Amino acid sequence: MMEYDKQLKEYGILATNAQVIIKDNVLSIISAQIDKMKLECEKLKAKKIKKIHIFGSEIQYIYFTEDTTIDIDFIYCNFKNQVIAKKHNFNNIITFKQCIFETIVDFSKATFNCQADFFASIFKAEARFINTKFLVEQSDNNKIVESDFRESVFEGNAFFDRAIFQGRVDFNISTFKDKARFIETQFLAEQDNGEIIENNFRESVFEGNTSFDGAKFKGRVNFGISRFKAETSFIETQFLVEQDNGEIENDFRESIFEGNVVFGGITFQARVSFMFSNFMGEALFIDTNTQNCIFNHTEFNKTKFIKIDYKNAETYTFRNSTFKDTLSFENTNISKLEFDNVVFNGIVTFNEANFSNEANFSNKPSFTNCTFSNQFNIEHQYIQYRYEDIEKTRDYSQLLNYRDLFRKLKSNRIAHHNLIDASELHSQELYARELELKHKGNKTIKEHIEKWQLWFYHKLCDHHTDLLLNLKWLIIAIGLFTSLYFISRLIQDISILESLNPFGICFSIACAFIALILYWFGHIERLDFFASLNAVITLWIICYKPQLIFGIANLLGNIKYNGFENFLITIYTIVIGLIIFSLQKTARKNSIVPN
């Protein structure tokens, strides 16, 4: 049996095969086999030892005093048995660099009043830092991390519940192979805009279920390029850093969420970026203020945005993103919703969604260069644009975007057999095309003709969607023709006035007066007033000479007409033919939707 090193034995260290160096008040132990290590700080101080440095050693058992008052470095060490330091106080720097902990590590309720360094260490069993306090104050030196867990590997559960980090904390490139819990953990480092992020989880890998529920981040947070392979939850997590400059304060860029993830009741005081992130599982955003969220080049699978607190209207903006499966907005109060170059591969639903309580042009959802591959369930009023709404847009490229949107939504409605909405969207597509041609420079002759054709059918029947409007113009056309024909005949023979029924004249005057009163007080529109007058005239021709309604057929009889009347009948026949053709097409409203 090998004897323990006598010199180390005096310090409470039972070790063999040790290379011992004492220099400048530093006790260095190299490549030792340490069976037991019970640090007695007062005895070490009596020997004027201010720091212990242990390198490349294997340690069976280690016992810390309740108050550790000397610096301790463990580098490349292997701890074979449990490391228990519950409720202990560490008042000087303690370092575990590139160490291996074979079994449970428990620093629960311990207090680190100094820098704590676990750089590149491996925890092969459960690591407990529950209610642990890392109280060293944040340094003015922006290159110092007060709590360093960079490149650490947690092979068992890692519990940091209710821990307090007063200074900066760094888990960069760390791996959590089992559960990782940071429930109600407080990250209290203040934002200082230095190079080192206050709370750094960049490139970390979370292989087990992960929870940051109730955690509080006062400084900047970086989860960029991190990978969450199982269920992840950020419920009532507070990201309290204030927006300060052009940098992103809360960074989830290029993160991958392979399992389901929940962001519930989140507080984002500043910007949070999910740029180039990938949500491969189901993503739930519950009562989360998304107006500071940046979704750009983001890929979603099944996604829900749910609001329980219905009071505050939210802003949602998605750019260059893809929704592979269902996208759902439930009970949301939306003030602004923008989709720019977004692909919808799944069903999109708006369940009890409300766009600022009323749908008007200023807050309708915006879809620019989007692709709809599946059912898009949104109340039609939120994608319904009047001609006057679109006419407000003077930008030629925006008009192209509108037409592209209406075309895609129309195709989507047709594919899912909603032909009535598809018909209205087709009209909106033609509105946009009409205005597009209006604002386009250097039009060809064909485009000029198309522009006036669209204008004509827009005014005539709202592109075959308004049967009543079509009937009004039919009555107006008959009435105008009758008036002009009557004037022509009256010029030739004024005596025809004697054949008119006086009661009919009185009735016509009364109807015209009533129509004028209704128009004067704003009860009917100008077109309705004009149609009312012509309806009276049309009634006269029906009573006295109904055959005139049939236009050019009158030229085939024995009655002789002068040149003006022949011209008038010919023009009337062409116009009435177009109107009747449009009338029958409008009456068959569902059949006009393009296949």
TrEMBL record:
InterPro entries: 5peptide_repeat (IPR001646). Coiled coil: none annotated. Keywords: Membrane, Transmembrane, Transmembrane helix. The chain crosses the membrane at residues 467-488, 500-521, 527-544, 564-583. Gene3D superfamilies: E3 ubiquitin-protein ligase SopA. This is Pentapeptide repeat-containing protein. It comes from Helicobacter equorum.
